[in-house]
Amino acid sequence: MKKTSEHKTFLTKSEKVAFDLEHRKKIKFNISRYDQAVLKGKMIYKNLDLARQRAAYTKYKVINDLEKNLIEFEDNFINNGGKIIWAETEQEAIDAIIKIAKHHNVEKVVKSKSMTTEEIELNRAFEKQKIESLETDLGEFIVQQAGQKPYHIVTPAMHMSKHDIAALYHKKFGTDEKFTPKELTLYTRHLLRKKFVDADMGVSGANFLIADTGSIALTENEGNAMLSMSYPRIHVAIAGIEKILPSLDDLDLFWPLLATHGTGQHLTVYNSIISGPRHTNEKDGPDEMYLILLDNGRSNLLAQEQQRRSLSCIRCGACLNACPIYKNVGGHTYDTTYSGPIGSVITPYLKDLRTYNHLSFACTICGECTEVCPVKIPLHDLMLLNRNDAIKHNFYTFFDKALIKASGIALGSRKILDMTGGATKNKIIGVFASKAWGPRRNLPEFAKKSFSQQWKKKYGDK
């Protein structure tokens, strides 16, 4: 496989992170707590697989009829008083949001958790325009103060211990280094409260877009999204075009699935349905509400006959927690917005297959990600398809091609396999495969005689 600069960076970071014992200890501890909670949370279902099948069918049907559902949503959202902006690229989305901010003389922005805003790097765009933009989700707030990107789809600061966070707050805000998690949370709450009141604009994502009511559905645990939407006079939401659900009734299925697979809760603490700006008879809410519907490569995924199923993802993060690669190399190693198995499947098409096809090769194909997915996306199968697409596009080296051809000839011929003994085979493998196998692993050794030779010796030609 041809190594792009991104591929080389991935290998370098993987080497460093995978053998950082302190990092592995933190991730093992944090993911184990989620695993325990999720296992308990799933017990609310009498037939979990049936719920997953229904969710998978609903999302698959939506994705295959996306245009119709989006048109219905747009009509209903506009009728509710909202304004929709279609953005084909991340730059179009940024330009639209900055234009809104300038039109309303926005100086301060509060943001609730949104991977889509991370995807377009909205905070950086606000910074360039001298607009203060503050993350209000606790995990997002922590990584923003650390100058980092989210480590995990659901838990942005999963890679940090309570001691790391206490040290960060001491450095940034002068708090006591011995602050407990409760004290750190209360300090953040106090700091953010005034920010909500003073903000000119609130920015949110959308867990789901409800077609038949023209509403966005948001689920959270801290209430920061509700405050980001209700206090500022302008609310801008941004969502990928794949977030559609046909009916409000579908939330009865999807909200519990998202909660149990994401955090192990039966239902997250706050669940909001937003249907446009504040009306004349309402006391709370923004004067104006805008929704940015983002493509940004999703049409490329939609054009793939099989990989389009990955657009069913509800961003629960379950596949990350289950993935042995993610748990060893960590979220930042991927150097993409969406890490882990789902990121490895969608990033090559959201961005560029040549540049990011290595992510699909960084997988054991154990199938655990598929096993835990609440909407039954066959993630490990889709990674194999991505690999196949990379080969079809000739994204490999001459050495790769020659080695595969030679291996195919050798492995396809019993005579060739039986011609050399185990010692000779071990020498050949040592020359050609030792570097790829890595310095920290011992190469497997061939037996002195092949299986067929041993069989013939024991059983003859039977």
Walk me through what this model shows.
It is a single chain. The protein folds into three domains: 5-11 and 312-392, Fumarate Reductase Iron-sulfur Protein, Chain B, domain 2 (Orthogonal Bundle); 46-296, 3-Layer(aba) Sandwich (Rossmann fold); 398-459, no CATH class. It contains 24 helices and ten strands. It is 54% helix and 10% strand. It has 462 residues and is α/β, with parallel strands linked by helices. Strand 5 (208-210) and strand 6 (215-220) form a beta hairpin.
Short description:
The chain is an alpha/beta fold. The chain is 54% helix and 10% strand.
Which percent range fits the helix content?
A: 40-55%
Low-confidence stretches: none
CATH architecture heading of the largest domain: 3-Layer(aba) Sandwich
Strand content: 5-15%
Distance between the termini: 42 Å
Cross-sheet strand order for the largest sheet = 1-10-7-4-2-3
Main sheet record: 6 strands, parallel
Number of strands: 10
Tag the structure with descriptive keywords.
single chain; 462 residues; alpha/beta; Fumarate Reductase Iron-sulfur Protein, Chain B, domain 2; Rossmann fold; 3 domains; four-stranded mixed beta sheet; 24 helices; globular
What is the element layout, followed by pairings?
Elements: H1 5-18, H2 21-41, H3 48-64, H4 66-79, E1 83-87, H5 90-103, E2 108-111, H6 115-119, H7 122-128, E3 132-135, H8 138-145, H9 162-173, H10 181-198, E4 201-204, E5 208-210, E6 215-220, H11 224-230, E7 234-240, E8 244-245, H12 251-262, E9 270-274, E10 288-294, H13 298-302, H14 318-322, H15 324-329, H16 340-350, H17 353-356, H18 358-361, H19 368-372, H20 379-392, H21 398-411, H22 414-419, H23 422-437, H24 451-459
Parallel strand pairs: 1-10, 2-3, 2-4, 4-7, 5-8, 7-10
Antiparallel strand pairs: 5-6, 6-9
